[in-house]
Amino acid sequence: MTTPVAQRPFVLSTPAAPVERHGNVDLHLPTGDGRAPAVVVVHGAPLPPGVPDPRDWLLYRGYGALLAESGVVTALVSYQVAELSALPATAEDIATMVEQVRADPRVDPDRVVLWFFSGGGLLASDWLRDAPSWLRGIALTYPLLIPFPDWEIDSRFLPVDALEAGSTVPLVLTRAGRDIPVVLAGIDAFLTAATVHGRPVQVIDVPDGQHSFDILDHSPQSEAAVLAARDAVLAFLANN
């Protein structure tokens, strides 16, 4: 029997951090006193009906533990996109959750990174277009950056077009070499547009990785890619 996606183990073994649930936001908390930088993790979408809350997936809990161990408050947000026409409302919900995280007294509100996974990549568009000063970087892991051919979505949610706006927020993108064609095509289009518009992107390649390599491909290559992405995020947060 195939293991459900929510139960597939994360590629790295990291001790779990204390976790607090506040509405649709889970906070994975580092040790130590004082305010810490934060990473807000935006999972993929749309999700099939009946799938467990992504905050409970071993995948995202693994990222939460990994970042908390590195001294970062990690916020896993929960949302659902039942219809593509709901993307604008979903984007507003995510922006509200980001502000909820920034308002937590344990968080340094001026040092935040947003990390988008899979289909959540489309929701990076607003932040790519107009990054606030407190947003220190955007991470994209096997991101969907163009819609599937049969999807009709608001032009607001086209990350490739959003690069035209002239924002300078730092970017890191993890690319799985054996990803599905539409994801790879979107990444190619995104990187081409980034070059045209002078937007540097740090690319972390996982040549043998599948989509969701961080739970499907337990290999040194996958481990190294996850750690490289973490290190890039930490570097964004360390910059003054």
In words, what does this structure look like?
This protein has helices at residues 58-69, 87-102, 125-129, 159-162, 181-196, 213-216, 220-238; strands spanning 19-22, 25-28, 36-42, 73-77, 107-117, 135-141, 171-176, 201-206. It has an eight-stranded mixed sheet with strand order 1-2-4-3-5-6-7-8, sandwiched between helices. The N and C termini lie far apart (49 Å). Helix content is 32%, strand content 21%. α5 links the parallel β7 and β8. The chain has seven helices and eight strands. The chain has 240 residues and is an alpha/beta fold. The radius of gyration is 17 Å and the shape is globular.
- Give the tally of β-strands: 8
Mean pLDDT: 95
Low-confidence regions: none
How helix-rich are the residues, as a percent range?
25-40%
Shape: globular
- Content-based structural category: alpha/beta
Largest sheet: 8 strands, mixed
List the secondary-structure elements in sequence, H or E. Answer: EEEHEHEHEHEHEHH
Number of helices: 7
Strand order of the largest sheet: 1-2-4-3-5-6-7-8
End-to-end separation in angstroms reads 49 Å
**Strand fraction band?**
15-25%
Q: What value does the Rg take, in angstroms?
A: 17 Å
Summarize the structure.
This protein is of the alpha/beta class and 240 residues long. Helices cover 32% and strands 21% of the residues.
